[in-house]
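Input sequence (354 aa), recorded before submission:
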Amino acid sequence: MIEIAINLHMHTRHSDGTGTHQDIAEAAIKTGLEAVIVTDHNILVQDQEGYFARGEDSVLVLVGEEIHDNNTERRNNHLLVFGVDHEMADLSQDTQGLITKINQAGGLSFLAHPIDPAAPKFNQGDFSWDKWDVTGFTGIELWNGFSEFKTRLKSNLTAFWYAFNPSRIARGPIPETIMIWDRLTAAGKKIIAVGGSDAHALHANLGPVKRTVFPYQYHFQSVNTHLLLPENLSGDLNRDKSLIYDALRQGHAFIGYDLLHSSRGFSFTGTGIGVNAVMGDEISVGNGITLQINLPRKAECILIKDGQPVKHWQDKKICSYSATGPGVYRVEAYQPFLGRRRAWIFSNPIYIRE
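Predicted structure, token format:
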């Protein structure tokens, strides 16, 4: 399969970001991404999809939407919507109805920043998801770069420090979000995990210092979603959009913190008698499945089954495990960076059924 790297969940001047779609495209080209998905708040920006080129390089810009109900006090329960060609924000007050309509339109929906703690010192509210009775959504945003930053905002001093040292922020998805994902998948639901930057390229005044906090280019070299496609992108908008959204729908994806080291080349596969699976696939356990993990470089690697570690490797590049029973199997990889153990790769699961 063909691997591409995309960044999703970002904002422009059409909502609360500071840049344009052209700015985003140029930043994505500089970082080597194949595609980005722009998601402004409660507005589907028209006529911005397509390939943007700079010299011999190009990037595919797709446009989705981040929908939430502005009429509630908390303004939480944000939903990322992809692959729908018309405005859906007028359904924001009925979250289940919104998800149902998205599915009927052939789109995808991801719960944005399911755990998103408040940072009251900086007028940032708690926008965590709390409508856990909804069904039918495609997946969740497991790792949100901006939500993780909010967990570091304890004082003006720490905000100033991280604004000038952004590479020290990321350590991994918020643990509570991981627990929610594992609980949902262990209950038999296929829930696709993606990583999102939640990029705004915010302009901030830090005392006498003016600075763009986390420019788009910084985000695009950090937490990305890598997709496995059945064929190369062709340069045709509709065909390539379909390839990307199909990969997301199937969960043929993993999350990579590419600032640490490039995660390109990672693979997680399952092989049995007459069956082969990649991330996102469901297969029968049969007489057993051999799970194979290939890392781009040596790292700490953990195989998770139904939310619990079942095998732990240190300083390994290739790992294998014989699964003899059903379960939801996924991979986490970690690397030391700037004095800390930091998350590097989170795979989507291989679902081994009876």
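Checked by second reader. The mean pLDDT is 94.
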